[in-house]
Amino acid sequence: MKPAPFIRHAPKTLDEALKILGEVATQDGRVLAGGQSLVPIMAFRLAKPAHLVDINGVEGLDKIASNGKVLSIGACVRHAAFHKPVVDNPLGKLLAYVARHIAHYPIRVRGTFCGSLAHADPASEWCLTAATLDATMVAKSTRGERSIAARDFFAGIMATALAEDELLAEVKLPLLAPDAKFGFNEFNRRAGDFALAAVLVSYRMQGGFMTDVHVGVGGAEASPRRIAEAEVALNGQAPGDKVFRAAAEAAAAAVEPLEDHQTSGDYRRDLVRAVVRRALEHSA
Ligand SMILES: Cc1cc2nc3c(=O)[nH]c(=O)nc-3n(C[C@H](O)[C@H](O)[C@H](O)COP(=O)(O)OP(=O)(O)OC[C@H]3O[C@@H](n4cnc5c(N)ncnc54)[C@H](O)[C@@H]3O)c2cc1C
């Protein structure tokens, strides 16, 4: 099938993009970033936006910058930008490791970090990263700018706190401590598919014990989130098989798994148990 007719707008500046988005938002105007999610659903006519605000030509949106505390990722930064560490900090290595689990190479060359967050697929690796590391989203519109914490941003399957006329201009990820460790694991039936469950963990090691533990689970529930029960099981403990299994059990018990015709809730819960343990083993 071909998409329904639409008008493509090609602003050159952010102000121009926000102005057009403000004007067309009420007529199902949408932002077009990498197009790797929007274009397929338009081709299937699951979405029929009347206007596309194509931000690919907007100056300055393709920047990645660090101020020593936070990594800022602009709206047109592609997944492939993270194939190599973008910052000399454990966060750079973490993003490079996670990036290669997203789809396939041609999709990573076009798809954007911010587009993934705005699309909010429950299984998106970048949504999981943002939720686990307590990212801050910077939303802009002609009405002004606001910052949204990750825990307030994700609002269910493909739903976010963004208003129709808001552009996700930038995402801010806190840099990790120099001694931080991370682990990631996901399960999917075929390489490149969306994960049925995915886990990202990060923590610091102090005196042989794990501190400042973050455990995020994606793909299993409507939105990715940190799992406090698993973090409590790990904080202050020495890493090891028994502790990792206890955290995995706590995470599996805490999630309310999504179900579909191929995947039962029990199966997904079991996957959460497995991927939490594997991510922790990876971290160690
Ligand atoms: C075969 C295939 C496999 C894939 N596998 C994976 C996978 O394993 N993991 C994964 O995470 N993703 C996967 N994807 C999706 C891919 O990562 C997309 O790139 C991503 O979800 C959306 O980014 P985009 O820049 O392409 O956004 P677009 O497709 O351009 O837009 C997606 C949605 O977000 C909105 N939007 C985009 N940018 C902004 C913004 N800055 N502000 C406000 N709204 C915005 C659009 O209006 C639209 O509604 C896959 C895609 C395909 C085709």
Q: Percent range for helical residues?
A: 25-40%
In terms of DSSP E residues, the strand content is 15-25%
State the order of secondary-structure elements, H for helix, E for strand: EHEHEEEHHHHEEHEEEEEHHH
Output the strand order for the largest sheet: 4-5-8-6-7
Major sheet: size, sense and barrel closure? 5 strands, antiparallel
User: Structural class from helices and strands?
Assistant: alpha+beta
How large, in whole angstroms, is the Cα Rg?
Answer: 19 Å
Number of helices: 10
* Spans where pLDDT lies below 50 across 5 or more residues: none
Query: What is the mean predicted local confidence, pLDDT?
Result: 96
Named once each, the bound ligands are: flavin-adenine dinucleotide
Specify the overall morphology. Answer: globular
The N- and C-terminal alpha carbons lie at a distance of 48 Å
What's the total number of strands?
12
Structure description:
With 284 residues, the chain is α+β, with helices and mostly antiparallel strands. Helices cover 32% and strands 24% of the residues. It has ten helices and twelve strands. The strands form three sheets. Strands 4-5-8-6-7 form a five-stranded antiparallel sheet. α5 crosses α6, α8 runs antiparallel to α9 and α9 packs antiparallel against α10. The structure holds flavin-adenine dinucleotide (FAD).
